[in-house]
Amino acid sequence: MSIFDWFRSKETRDIEEPSWAALSSGGLGPVTPAMAENLSTVLACVQVISSAVASLPAYVYRATKKGRDIVYDHPLQKMIEGGPNKDMTWPDAIEFILAQALLRGNSLSRLEYDPNGQLKAISPIPWENVTTQQLKNGKLRFECTLPGLEIQQTIRLLEHEVLHLKDRSDDGILGRSRLARAAAAFRTGIELQTFSESLYRNGTAPSGALLHDQALGKEAVNTLRTRFEAAHQGSNKAGKVLILDQGLKWQSMSISPEDAELLASRKFSTEEIARIFGVPPPLAGDFSHSSFTNSETASRWFSVFCIGPWIKKIEAAFKKSVFTEPEKDLSLEIDMSGFMRGDYESRWKAHKIAVESEILTRDEIREIEGFAPLGG
Predict the structure, then answer these.
(1) Is the sign of the CA dihedral 356, 357, 361, 366 positive or negative?
(2) Strand 249-252 to 140-146 pairing
(3) What is the 8-class DSSP label of residue 351?
(4) Cβ of 344: how many Cβ atoms within 10 Å?
(5) Contacts of 323 (CB under 8 A, 6+ apart)
(6) 161 near 141, Cβ under 8 Å?
(7) Does residue 58 contact residue 334 with C-beta atoms inside 8 Å?
(8) Strand 140-146 to strand 153-158: parallel, antiparallel, or no bridges (unpaired)?
(9) pLDDT, tens digit, for every residue of 23-35?
(10) Ranges of each domain in the chain
(11) How far apart are CA 339 and CA 325, in angstroms?
(12) pLDDT tens for residues 191-216?
């Protein structure tokens, strides 16, 4: 250790996340986010949550004595409309940020400012490229590796220079991913998928054993196995006619996936993973217990108990990081009524109730729907 390393160790301490080794079960190796997303249920859950939130309209509001007003000239509102950086639209950025938090427990975005101190860009950074340290004063510092065309650039960012979204935390500093908390469930799903793939890739048709009334030498056994596998192994050779000679006999030992309860196990794994992410099974593609009535209920459950908490987390993260001290009367709101855009009847019934209850005027309803005001 150099003298500089010694002084630095006195000023900071590394914040360690649960290692990927902790995500394994039974010593079978680590489960990474990339491996987990190979499970269709994980991919579906992450996609439906992140894309649903990203699809909702968002506004910057200023609280007033009479209510609140949209602040159209705020840099963040302009980013919502035109994109937070040169490479992303607003939905792209929210989708990326939320998917990172779902799979890795944390997501980090760099807040970039112009010379006048105005926010000019929000640039998400892959969490794999981030190392977290805690300074002596208790503040966090993030060392981020940015990919470049020729060389990689490493920058250091402090808490006020980043937007940090995290899943439930054990220490209040960093979030812990659901992959880490329920490692065994994800490992089981991966093992079941690997077994199913191997079953169909290596399966022979017909399946069973070749019998002979005399002992065969090692070379004869190897030759017979090679020829048999070449003729019948693989799904593209299923159903080929089996021809035997020289006293060989076939004994079937076929075991279907249903007999092995493979399909039932995979179905249970799907439900278990959907449960971990808080996604109703029909929204993850499991319609085995769904009907029109309970699908509507599942959508409401998804909005209230799955999407709602994440939206609150995102709004709070922006409130803490993006708005400066003089802007504490500002807030970001992600409008969940955007979920009604696909339900024409329910949307207009809600508008009717709002007008009759004198909550909104006809012109305000027309503005929401994108029509010019009637006036008067």
Answers:
(1) negative
(2) unpaired
(3) H
(4) 9
(5) 330, 331
(6) no
(7) yes
(8) antiparallel
(9) 444 555 568 999 9
(10) 3-184+271-342, 208-253, 347-376
(11) 32
(12) 888 887 776 676 544 566 667 676 77
